[in-house]
Amino acid sequence: MSKVTKQFSIQSYIDKNRNSLDESLVSLRIMKEIDKILDSKNLSNRELAIELGYSESYISQLMTGVKNVNVSFISKFEKAFAAKFDFRIFLKDDEILRQKIREQIFWSFDDHLTMFISNDDSHGFSFRQGSKSMMNVTDIEYETLK
Question: What separation, in Å, do the N-terminal and C-terminal C-alpha atoms of the chain show?
Fold first, then answer.
């Protein structure tokens, strides 16, 4: 009888569990935002569990990615904290553009000031002024960066 050896590699694990891993990452992004709110309100995971009617163990599992956030959790959180989840979808190409714009934000007081603002639409403002003071801006240019 021949021996059959199974080889384990991280890549094979990732390939086999890709969907589950991706779901956990989405859930962890949501829980990261919830954790920020808890920090700002000085609340513990235990207090969150009590407020939402879950066990502390369940909240811990959500925070560590063992379990994934579901719509029921989101609904209870919104009601308990008078909050609203704002889900936006960014295509990866659009997000790459936004990141490049964020990296290009700079202030130059020598000859002019250029500021790029990235929100739902990418826009740029360029203030040109001979003086080093922004109080007397005389020329404003505006452009859409898309």
Answer: 66
List per-residue pLDDT tens for the chain, 146 residues long.
455 556 668 888 888 888 888 889 999 999 999 999 999 999 999 999 999 999 999 999 999 999 999 999 999 999 999 999 887 776 777 777 777 766 665 444 444 444 444 444 544 444 444 444 444 444 444 444 44
Nearest to 113 by CA among 146, 97, 135, 144: 135
Pairing mode, strands 112-118 and 139-144: unpaired
Q: What CATH number does domain 10-81 carry, 1.10.260, 2.40.160, 1.10.1660, 3.30.1490?
A: 1.10.260
The two tokens of residue 47 are 């207090």
Question: Hey, where are the domains in the chain?
Answer: 10-81, 92-144
Instruction: Provide the token pair at 42.
Output: 């000085």
